[in-house]
Design goal:
Elements: H1 15-38, E1 42-43, H2 44-51, H3 61-70, E2 74-76, E3 86-89, H4 98-106, E4 114-115, H5 116-119, H6 126-136, E5 139-143, E6 150-155, H7 166-174, H8 181-190
Antiparallel strand pairs: 1-3, 2-3, 4-6, 5-6
Amino acid sequence: MATLKRKMGDPPIMVHEVSSGREIMTQVVYAIDYLKDKDKPIAFGDIWQYLSIPQDQQRHRPALLKALMSHPKVEHMPTKQGGQHMFRFKPMHNVRNGDELVAYLQGQKTAQGISVKELKDGWSDATQVIEGLEKKGTLLVTHNKKDNTPKMVWLNDTSLGMKVDDDFKLFWTNLRLPTNDGDIRSELERAGLTPTSQVKETIKLGPQKKEKRRINRKAGRSTNTHMNGILKDYSFKK
C-alpha cells in the first residue's frame, strides 16, 4: 500500500492549529449573534463568559479578541470599560432608532431610498417605528404587495407639501374613468378633443401620367470625326 510522503521543503501540517482556527471562527459567529441580540456595547469579558470557553482552550482568548477587533460586522468601541475592550454589532446602516434614521437620510448626498430589510439588520423594531414616522409625514414609504409591510423609505420634504381642498379631494375620489376604449373615445370627442386612436384619412392621389421615353431613331453610322487625322479606317476589311 502506497504511503503519502511530505516533499522536502513543504511546511509541516499542524492539525491542532487548523482545528483551533476553526473553533475560534465558530466562536466568533456565536459572539456576533450575541452582540446582535443585545444591540448595545458589550465588554469582551462578558462575551467570553457567554461563550463558555472550556478551560483547556483559554489560550485562544487573545486570538478571539483579535478576530473580533478586525471583523467587519463588529464595531470596536474607542473607549474601554473597566480596562476591557468594548464591542457592538455593526449593521449595514448605522441606524438603531427613528431619530438616527431621519438624521441618516438627511445626511445622504442623494435622494436614494433605503431598504427596510437592510435597516432591520441591526434594528429589530424598525418596522413599527417606520410606520409611525410614515403616519406623521416624516417619511415616504413603499410597501410590499403581499403583506403591506414597509419596503423602502425616503425622507419626506415637508416644504414641498401642498394643501388640497376637501372639495377637490371628494371630486377626485368620485371621478370615474370610462371602462373601455370606445367610451374613452366618445368622451374625448364630446369634449372637443381628438383621440389618438382616431383613424387618419389617407389622401388618394390620382393616376400619374408616365412620361414616354424618347427613342433615338436616327440611323447611320457615327464616327469620331475629331480623330480623323489620327485613326485609320479599317471598315473596308469587314
